[in-house]
Amino acid sequence: MSESKIRYPRSLTEELAPKPVRRDLSVVIPTLGRPILETCLCYLAGGTSWPGAVIVVDQGRVAAVASMLARLEAIGIRAEYAPSDQRGRSAGLNRGLEKVRTRFVAITDDDCFVAEDWIESMAGRLDRDPDMIITGRVEMAGDDEVEFSTVTSTEERLYTRPQLKAHPLIGGNVGLSMEKVRAIGPFDEHPCIASAEDSDYGYRALRMGIPIAYDPTITVYHYHWRDANQRSARYADYAYSQGGFYGTHLRGGDPLIFLQTIRALVRSPLRWMRGILKADRELAANGREHTLHLLPGIIAGLRSGKRNYDRWT
What we know:
- The protein contains nine helices and nine strands.
- With 313 residues, the chain is an alpha/beta fold.
- It has two domains: 221 residues, Spore Coat Polysaccharide Biosynthesis Protein SpsA, Chain A (Alpha-Beta Complex), CATH 3.90.550.10; 75 residues, no CATH class.
- β2, α2 and β3 form a beta-alpha-beta unit.
- It is globular and about 55 Å long.
- The chain starts with 20 loop residues before the first strand and ends in an 11-residue tail after the last helix.
């Protein structure tokens, strides 16, 4: 979907009529301070409802981010700027979650643009199902023809236990109660799973018996800004981190993770070969990077040591 087809205020300096406020829901956004954050915030401001608070954790310590949040406050949306010297999305999420004072929290990323009814839909679903983690659809924004990090299924799903083939938590479009956040514990900040933090968090939740509901009516649009080389590097990062996730849980002798690991190790070179045979460069790049980087990630996870998820770091 082209960005131009989605309605939103073009600047945080535009005057907007006040919107209904969902005072029981905060939004956490980790960022390195990229300029695209302003567009992300514009979409939030242009929604049919506003959150009780927007908490932006800025790991780049960019002065412009604080200015963006000041403009958000001027519009009438409560905003909190949280500068951080740490790196990694998990650390950014944890520092943001520590500041949440509402019953519910929703998480998105600085390159995700929320649908107009996102706050309203997420808050309504959490009201109805407070004991679940809610996740939703991720469509493509921008004019890139490659669908990267999208989840476009229109079929509602409920996951009550870990799956062999799926990791259902979609990190850029998720909401849950702070009660569940405290029960699950923090996102794992170990660098070996830096880009698989959502797989890990969802897996831990399901192991605890906390269901994950996929609701396709709750939608965000992921802006595609990476070129082919950047996407290839991202596939390598995903593969290493997913391997780190497998290795971390293999240390505990988890039989389902063992099956997931074997499946991933077998499928990666097959995906690479299928991409070559079909002349599909994207599929081949994905398979190649997983073939090369999954096993080193598994080894890193096995060596990474036991975690303590019972307390905030």
